[in-house]
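hey so i finally got around to running the thing on that chain from the lab meeting. sorry it took forever, my laptop kept dying and i had to restart like 3 times. anyway pasting the input first so we r on the same page abt which one it is
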Amino acid sequence: MRDDRAWSGFAEISFKGNRKAYFSYTSLNLRPGLDVIVEADQGKDLGKVTAVGVIAERKCSSSNGGCATPAPEQKVLRIAHSKDIGKSQALRKDEDRVRIEARKLVAKHQLNMKVTDAEWQFDRNRLILYFTAEKRVDFRQLVRDLASKFKARIQLKQIGVRDEAALLGGVGRCGRELCCSTWLPELKPISLQLAKSQGLSLNPSQISGCCGRLMCCLMYEHRTYVEARRRFPREGLKIRTGKGLERVITIDIWNDTVLLRDDEGTRRTLTLEQLEIEVAQ
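ok and heres what got predicted. didnt touch it at all, straight out
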């Protein structure tokens, strides 16, 4: 295995929202938390170092889209100066105005789309507008009007409602900041089966997040539930115990108990250990 020095020219850089990219660098002493100027599409951008060396390379390899390792094509140019950071902060403030103006143009063209956020590239050569839409939108004329108004190359990027929540952030029903906007590396599909396997209410209002989709945290303990349930008989299964044939009604993995019912409707609760002894006799 290579040591960190072998990968010292590899860095993960984060930008506004949850956008991240990977860059190579030379003759720079980078560490997480530093603001840097990087090469961008026909220009330059400012981002923050979130990982370097082997850690950055592993995160890159495990990302959805993969990446070119160990030497990405684009490079970190230099460490950002205080005036660069000041300029970036001014651009972040201006993005509120841009979003409002973009929404006015969308309304003017009567397009069925919602502009969620805006992001200036550091050199103002490019403007990214994030939007959500239920159907395909013909925004060719809108792009021309936006380019004319903001004097920059326009990139309209359609995102889903889960991506929108990750971009804007918020507070979940647990009282903490949304996982998708703080630390969750990627958004994986969440199915209703995850809630069923954990015995949770299937009421959408109780298992849905701010985005209106099933909460990402449903998958956090799913494996624990699956492994715990393997020790128990399947619900609905008929098994022969000391009292004859009985059907498994419910199981309780927390209290290690099983609820049984015989053909006459009589119910009783046994611990898993007691059940195993009766079945073995």
